[in-house]
Amino acid sequence: KSIAVMASGRGSNLKVILDAVAAGDCPVDVQLVICDRGDAAALDIARATGVPHVIHVNPKDYEGREQYDAECADLLDRYGCQWIVLAGYMRILSSSFVRRFRGRIINIHPSILPAFAGARAVEDALAYGVKVSGCTVHLVDEVLDGGSILAQSVVPVLDDDTRDSLHARIQIEEHKLYPATLKRMVEEGFTIEGRRIIWSK
Ligand code: GRF
What we know:
The protein is an alpha/beta fold. About 35% of the residues lie in helices and about 25% in strands. The strands form 2 sheets. Strands 3-2-1-4-5-6-7 form a 7-stranded mixed beta sheet, sandwiched between helices. It has a two-stranded antiparallel sheet with strand order 8-9. 5-O-phosphono-beta-D-ribofuranosylamine (GRF) binds near residues 10, 88 and 174. One of its GO terms (cellular component) is cytosol.
């Protein structure tokens, strides 16, 4: 499976996916990395690992979300990407983009969805006072952080947690869950019943 990773930031999830691929633990081929930010560490990680196509698509060069996403969609088609893996990608995808790649876009989110959707998931969970949180890998649909759930991992929330300490604990789980879920998607596959993902094995 050829995949693209779209990222905006630190790129630690991108890195663990690339490491898993290199180690033979994740049977995908990362053909393309797209970043919306030119200073994203994700760009350096992708270049250093030898991803064939590493592209900064600058939002300033496009009229709006639709046009920006159309450029990304063209790149995804050009490089034959079957799946789109969002890894800390901070732009909301237009509904035409989601329609075009329906069922083929996945995201990782730092909470146990449907609790705490949105960009402030870790601080929202902390402020709410939940005693467990975690991460969710899910399909992307038109609802923000609202698509069918592929996998989740749970971590405890400790009394002295800060946003950073909780996020760090969640990221340890993300780094296991994301490559493992991609592997499962390739090797096992799934069907969808209503909202539910039913793994084939
Ligand atoms: C992760 O916590 C992920 O859940 C969220 O954004 C963060 C990205 O981290 N969507 P990184 O850029 O992969 O390090």
